[in-house]
Amino acid sequence: MKTYYYPSESAKKRVQLILNRDTGFKKKDLQSVSRIIEDVCKHGDIALIKYTNRFDAPELSIESLRVTEQEIEAAFLAIEDDFTCSLDKAIKQIEEFHRLQKSKSWISTERQGTILGQLVNPVDTAGIYVPGGKGGQTPLVSSVLMGAIPAVIAGVKNIVMVTPPREDGSINPHLIVAAKKAGVHDIYKIGSAWAIAALAYGTESVPRANVIVGPGNIYVTLAKKIISGKTGIDLIAGPSEILIIADETAIPEFVAADLLSQAEHDPLASSILVTDSRKKAQAVVRAVKDQITNLQRFEIAKASIEKFGTVIVVPDLDNAIELANRIAPEHLELHIKDPFEHIGRIRNAGALFVGNYTPEPVGDYMAGPNHVLPTAGTARYASALSVDHFIKKTSLIHYSQEAFMGEAGDIIRLAEIEGLDAHAKAVKIRM
Length: 431
Known about the structure:
globular, 45% helix, 3 domains, Rossmann fold, six-stranded parallel beta sheet
C-alpha cells in the first residue's frame, strides 16, 4: 500500500484517482445491453430462455424458468441446521431495524377549511436481483435478505426474485431457503441484463416490477441504468470501498483485516486508511502484507490493494474527518479513542462502523442496517437501500369553498405571472 502525506499535491491526486476510478462502462457494453433489453421487450420468454441457455444453463426450458414448490421443498431438506439458525437470526435483526423506517400516512387540518396530507402506499410489485456467485457455488444469501426484507416491511404484495441458474438448471438451495424465509413470493432462474429487462417490461412468465433492487455485474448495472425512469431502481452501484480513520489506539491487525475485507470484492475496490500516526500507518501496511497472502481471493485482493490501496497520514483527526467527508465512502470505520465524540461530524458516508469490534462484515450479514449502500462519492446525496425505496407518497389536498375564496386571488396572481392563463381561469370560474 502506498503512503501519502496530507495535505499535499500527491495526496490530492491520489484521492482524485480513487474517486474517478474506471467503473468499466464501455460503449460496446452499453450497446450489447441495449440490444438484450430490446430483444426481451419484443420476444419475452423466448429471449429469456435463449440467453439463459447460451450463458448459464444449456438444457433449461421455458417451463422451468420459475422455481417450483417441489424445488422449494427439496431446498429446505438440503440445507444445514446451523445455516438455518444463523439465517433466522439475521432475518430477525434485519426486520427489526427496517421496521423502524416505516412511514405512515398523515393528515393535517391546521389551516381552517383545508385538509392536507400524505398517503403512503407500497408499490404493487418489487423485483429483487441476486447475483449468481461463482456459478452458484457461493450463494449471496445476504443479497436476498437485504433486498426482500425492506420490501416485505413496506407491505409489497408481490415480491419476485431473479437469479442466474447453475449449469444444471438448478438454484443453490441456500438462496431458495433464504428467499422464502425472507418473504419472496416467486423465484425465476434468469440473470444478467435479460433478467433486469424481464422485470422492467414483464414477459409471459415474469411479472413487471415497479421497483428493481440488488447488486450485479456491469451488465446488470447498465441494464438498471437504462431502464431507470421507466422502473424504479435502488442505485447505480460502483466498486466496493472502505475508508478507515485510525489513531494511535487502533489495532493494526484489525485495521488490515477490515481493509482486505473490501479489497477481496473486486480489483477496482478501494481500501483507504487515514491516520494521524505514522507509526500506526507503518504497522498496518506490514499487517496487510502478512494477511493478504492467506486469502482465498488473493489475486483479486492483491490487484485492488496495489492499484487503489492507500494510506494517508494527516496532521490530526480534524483533517481525517474532513478528508473522509470529501471522499464520502461507502463504508467508514472509526478506530479511534472516544469515537462517539466524533460521529456528529461525519456527514458523508454510506454506513458508519464505530469501534474496534464493529468490522464492516457485521453490517453485511447480521447487524440489521441494509448493506446496499451508495458508492463512488454518491453518499454525499444518496442513502442505503431502505423501506422508502418500496413505497410511494401521494399528496392529499382538500379546500372548502371558504378556504378557496380566501386564496383564489393569490393563486390567480401567481399563475398569470407564469403566463398560464388556463390555470388562472380554472380558479376564476369558481369565483
